[in-house]
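Appendix B. One record, verbatim.
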Amino acid sequence: MGLKLRPNRIAAIMLRHYYLIRGSFSRFFPLFSWAAIDIVLWGFITRYLNSVSSSGLNFVPVLLGAVLLWDFFTRIMHGVTTAFFEDVWARNFLNIFATPLSIWEYLSGLVLSSMATSIIGIIVMVFLATVAYGLSFAAYGVMLTPFLLVLFMSGIALGIFACGVVLRLGPASEWFIWPIPAFISPFVGVFYPVSTLPLWMQYVARFLPPTYVFESMRAVIAGAEVSAGELLQALFLAALYILLACRFFARIYRHAVRTGLIARYSAENLS
């Protein structure tokens, strides 16, 4: 299980998921349907708030922009886990790891597959938010790039960690994975400043990279100065979590191979 990555093996993982999506409308439709629903719903909410608020604040970049960024993070995380779950549902692990494919090539294939599928949803969201509700990404300026990078890295880290949990606990544990973004969202302050949270929640928020993205986003919209140090801290945390998640997944995989659990993965739960 070396660290040398062969592009053709990574491409094979991506090709498998491409064929799965191409051959199933039920897999393709959710890639953009939920994104469209989120934008339409929050678009009408922001339009209503703009019509009744006397503060002069434009809620479109504040709320609709936050929805788009958070959905980007969620889609990256779910993209990794969904690609992994395809092998869980098909009981396909023995077929995959009977090949010379390394665990790092497999993870790389999952990450790139997540990127490809997430792009579809993001394009739909950006199109609707821009055309229907007038969201202009010029409001975020050049800071949009580090925002997306932090959220992308954070989603990858969380997705790989979630895959490790399911590999260790079994297919039934996938129901613990889907709600993870919802559990995290109150801590990172997607729609409100972290300062409104209780102190213990603020302490937790400091260790979550998306927190710095949404705090910085609100600062940009308010015309305040964005702390480059905080964004660098967010990038460092996200990179650290990716390394820890990869080590966690690799350790779980080695345990499953060593104990023979990977050969009995058709069971609902693993001990």
